[in-house]
Each structure stands twice: as structure tokens, then as C-alpha cells.
Automatic annotation (TrEMBL):
Family annotation (SUPFAM superfamilies): Metallo-dependent phosphatases
A molecular function (GO) term: UDP-2,3-diacylglucosamine hydrolase activity
Organism listed in the record: Streptomyces ficellus
Name used for this protein in its record: Calcineurin-like phosphoesterase domain-containing protein
Renumbered residue ranges of the record's region Disordered: 483-519
Keywords: Hydrolase, Membrane, Metal-binding, Transmembrane, Transmembrane helix
Superkingdom as given in the UniProt entry: Bacteria
Length: 519
């Protein structure tokens, strides 16, 4: 009995202790978020993860007719389609209303497919159907890739944030549902007539006044497709000519300077320059101006390849290059902008130059004419004289207009210019050699307006590495748009012995006649 009483007492004490612990207040440091806050956080994770997925793997490269394009889906408040045609600008279409936008970047013209169109003009008639199929194939592949991208991105970010597989899968599923809803919205609001009324930006903003509006193109498609065929032919031939340049064996004892000028916004010129730099082992590129056509900020993206041409780039402003152009170039890597007689030493060569004092695309200003050019040239000559007196003589002077360049006579051994779109080589009265380069852009995109295409010109100047004096030069001429000739001719200064630069190889056989252009 005593044992049973003791057991009952012990049980009663334990029961009281348990009840006291149940009724005692408890404190927790873990805060349970509100359901709305939890849902908002999940949406943020889903949207950010989906955006990262599209950014990393949500792009598709696909051919559309004769061009290579990149297609990408981007988040957007208004939807639509944006077609980027660098360096000319962009077209925006109200193709659909959805929280996603289709970006199409036209990367480059494919020479092989373009050549096929040139050799078989009958294919131009079916080009519209071919482009339609290419776009359909590209968007289908883009849709599948985008699904994988948004699901993978949202799932990966959900796993990183929540560290729970179930939450991560929920994020991926929600991302797929949102993308599907956006796709349904785009399909339901698709407007095929939007192509008739695009919005132009950049240089393309002037397209309606140049080529007529989109409705006239549709109504006169026969004329339009003939112009398209000619454009494809011209650009294809230019790329083909650039790829057949002759090759030289470099000589380390000679400096090689590539003189280019008047590119006038022709993107094919960069491929030509890059090819020449590689084949001739160019030390310095000198551009005597008119790289642009209108000098607007919209054209600036055209200049970006300069930093990767493989050689330092020395540049002076032409009458088609604005101060906006000049400031942009000053910020590019590997570019040396000369103005007001400024001099730089690049690869052991000292070069000074001045920009053109006139900007002729600005129709609100009356051109000052040759007097302004002579004044700019006189300032350049004065700068050359000061540097010679200071013991840092200039090897080459550069000005865009030959009128300005001629003012440096007697102050420098060699002065380079452009502007007139034809080659001129002459000795000035006081011993300075003036070399004027033709158009390295073949007159630019406006060359398409002419019946007789302008040829593409560039020159390789050979200078003695010790004296920095001109020993010889090669004039490189490519057939203009639509032509396939390539010509190289070797020249030596009249006052020098009839031999090329020390150790330099002789010029290869030229394609076609190679008359001297020295007047």
C-alpha cells in the first residue's frame, strides 16, 4: 500500500509539472511570413530567374534568306517586334501585344547564299516564301529554347533562394505558365499588317523619304525585288573581291602604313582593312577622314570595329564627320584622334594632323570654302614648324582636304589627304610629297545610285624604320560594287633609286592592267 501511495504521489507531481509547462508562455525567434509576401517573393524569383535564363541561353541564330540573324525574346511592357539593322538603325513593328518582345538582329550577309541568288536570279521570285519559312523555323526554335531557358532559370534561382526542391519546381512551373500565357496573348493579338507601317529609328528614320513608304514597296514589289537583287549582288561581289587580295611576306626592316580614306559608312570597308592589316602586317592605319556620311550619333556604332582591326588607328575629321563623331572616336580603344596640329608617336612613327574645319551635312551653315581650308592648313603648318624647332619633327602630316594639306609644303616629308575620291600623287614645290587616297568605301552606300560603280582604294606605304622616309608604296584597287577585279601596283618615289624598300618583296602580278597613277 505504501508503495502504491508513493507511486500515485510521483505521478501527480509529474502531471502537475506537465500541465504547468503547457500553460507557460513560449517564445520563438522564427517569423512566419505573410502568405501574400511569400507569393510576391516567389513571383519576383520567377521573373528574375526567367529573365536570366533568356539572357544566357534564350537566343537563336538562324538564317533568313541571304542574311544571318539572331532572334531573342525580351521582357516588355508593350510587346511588338524590333529589327536591328546595324549600323543603319532599327524598325519597330506593332506585331503583337504581350509582355514579351521579339528582337531580331541582322548580323551579316552570307556570301554563299547571296552568291546563289546572284547565279540563279529566278530564285528572287521565291525569296518571299523562303524568308517566311525561315522566320517560321527560327521562331519555332526560339519558342522551344525560350521555354527551356525560363524554366531552367527560374528553377535554378528558386533552388538557390529557397533551397527546397519543391519550391524550386514550383518556380519553374510558374515560369512556364507565365511564358505560355504570354505566348497565347501574342498569338491572339498577332497583326501581320504591322509590317506595312513600321517605325524607323537611327538613319532609317529617313527611309520613307528615300525609298517610299512600306505600302508603296508592297504595291510595287517587282521593282523592289529587282533593287534587292542588285544590292545583294553588289555586296556579295565586294566581299568576294576582298577575299581574293594577294598576300605579301612581311619584312621586319620596313614600316608599313595603311592609308585609307572616305569610307562613307560602308561596313564592307572594315573587312577589307582587316584583311590588309593581316596580310601586309600593317604597323599603323591612317584614316584621312569622311569615315561617316552624316555625322549623327546614330552612326556611331559603325565605328566600333576600329578597335579590333589589329593595328593602331590614326584619324582626322573629314567634312562628313562631326564633332559628335570625333568625341566618340576619342573614347575608343586603340584610336588616336588628331586635330589642331596635335601629334602622336605610334609604332615609332610621328604623325600630326588637323580636322576639316567644315561640316557640310549641316545645311544651316553656309560652307566657308577653300579659305577655311587654307587657314586650317596654315595652322597645321605652324604646328609642324614648332615641333621641328623643339626637336620632335613630324614624319607624316594628315589633313582631309588637299587644299589644307598643300599648306604644309616644306614642313614635313609626306602629307596625306582624301576628299576627292581619286588618287593623286605629286611633289609640292618645296619638296613635300602629297598623297591623296581614293575612297576605301567605294563611295559608300551611295555608290548604289550610280551606273558606274566607284572603285575601292587603299595604299600600303613602305617607310624606312630608321629615317621614316617613304621608300615605295603599293596602290591596292578593288573593283567597285558588283565588280570582281583586284589590282596591286608598286610605285617608288621619283627622287629615289628605282628599287623597292630595303628587303621588301616585289609586287605580285596585278589582275588586269596596273598603270601608274602618278600625274
Amino acid at each position: 500500500m505504501a508503495a502504491r501511495a508513493a507511486l500515485s504521489t510521483t505521478y501527480a507531481r509529474l502531471l502537475r509539472h506537465y500541465r504547468s509547462r503547457r500553460t507557460a508562455p513560449t517564445f520563438s525567434l522564427v517569423h512566419t511570413p505573410h502568405p501574400y509576401a511569400r507569393a510576391f517573393g516567389l513571383v519576383v524569383v520567377v521573373l528574375f530567374g526567367a529573365w536570366l535564363g533568356l539572357l544566357i541561353v534564350g537566343s537563336v541564330r538562324t538564317p533568313v534568306g541571304p542574311v544571318d540573324t539572331s532572334m531573342t525574346l525580351r521582357p516588355s511592357l508593350h510587346g511588338g517586334t524590333k529589327i536591328n539593322v546595324s549600323p543603319l538603325g532599327a524598325l519597330e513593328l506593332d506585331s503583337h501585344t504581350a509582355p514579351i518582345r521579339l528582337d531580331v538582329d541582322v548580323d551579316q550577309l552570307d556570301p554563299v547564299r547571296s552568291q546563289a541568288l546572284v547565279e540563279h536570279p529566278e530564285r528572287i521570285t521565291g525569296l518571299q516564301d523562303e524568308i517566311t519559312r525561315d522566320v517560321a523555323d527560327g521562331t519555332t526554335e526560339l519558342a522551344w529554347r525560350s521555354c527551356v531557358a525560363v524554366v531552367s532559370g527560374a528553377t535554378a534561382l528558386g533552388l538557390a533562394v529557397y533551397r527546397r526542391p519543391r519550391r524550386a519546381l514550383a518556380a519553374g512551373g510558374l515560369a512556364l505558365a507565365l511564358l505560355g500565357a504570354a505566348g497565347v496573348s501574342a498569338y491572339a493579338t498577332w497583326n501581320p499588317k504591322s509590317v506595312l507601317e513600321p517605325r524607323f529609328s537611327g538613319l532609317l528614320s529617313s527611309a520613307p523619304s528615300v525609298v517610299g513608304n512600306a505600302r508603296s514597296i508592297v504595291s510595287e514589289f517587282d521593282v523592289y525585288q529587282k533593287e534587292l537583287a542588285r544590292l545583294v549582288t553588289n555586296v556579295t561581289k565586294l566581299y568576294d573581291a576582298a577575299s581574293t587580295l594577294p598576300t605579301y611576306q612581311p619584312d621586319p626592316g620596313t614600316m608599313r602604313v595603311l592609308h585609307v580614306s572616305d569610307i562613307h559608312l560602308n561596313p564592307a570597308a572594315w573587312e577589307i582593312v582587316r584583311s590588309l592589316v593581316e596580310q601586309y602586317r600593317i604597323d599603323v592605319i591612317i584614316d584621312s577622314g569622311d569615315t561617316m556620311d552624316h555625322g549623327t550619333a546614330a552612326e556611331n556604332g559603325f565605328l566600333d570595329p576600329i578597335s579590333d582591326l589589329g593595328a593602331p588607328y590614326v584619324w582626322v575629321r573629314g567634312n562628313h564627320d562631326s564633332q559628335v563623331t570625333q568625341r566618340y572616336l576619342e573614347g575608343l580603344r586603340n584610336v588616336h584622334v588628331l586635330d589642331g596640329g596635335r601629334a602622336v608617336t605610334v609604332a615609332g612613327l610621328r604623325v600630326a594632323g588637323t580636322g576639316d574645319p567644315q561640316f557640310t551635312p549641316d545645311r544651316s551653315v553656309v560652307p566657308a570654302g577653300d579659305d577655311a581650308e587654307r587657314a586650317a592648313g596654315a595652322r597645321l603648318a605652324a604646328s609642324l614648324d614648332r615641333q621641328a624647332r623643339a626637336g620632335t619633327p613630324v614624319d607624316i602630316a594628315v589633313a582631309h582636304n588637299p587644299v589644307a594639306a598643300e599648306q604644309t609644303d616644306g614642313e614635313v616629308p609626306l602629307v596625306l589627304a582624301g576628299h576627292v575620291h581619286r588618287r593623286v600623287n605629286k611633289l609640292l614645290p618645296d619638296g613635300t610629297r602629297l598623297k591623296i587616297e581614293g575612297s576605301t568605301g567605294g563611295g559608300g552606300l551611295r555608290a548604289l545610285e550610280r551606273d558606274e560603280p566607284e572603285k575601292v582604294h587603299a595604299s600600303v606605304l613602305y617607310l624606312d624604320r630608321d629615317t621614316r622616309r617613304l621608300q615605295a608604296w603599293d596602290e591596292i584597287t578593288l573593283g567597285g560594287l558588283g565588280l570582281t577585279t583586284a589590282e596591286v601596283s608598286r610605285h617608288v618615289p621619283e627622287e629615289s633609286p628605282p628599287a623597292g624598300p630595303t628587303g621588301t618583296p616585289s609586287a605580285p602580278a596585278s589582275r588586269g592592267p596596273s598603270p601608274s597613277r602618278t600625274p
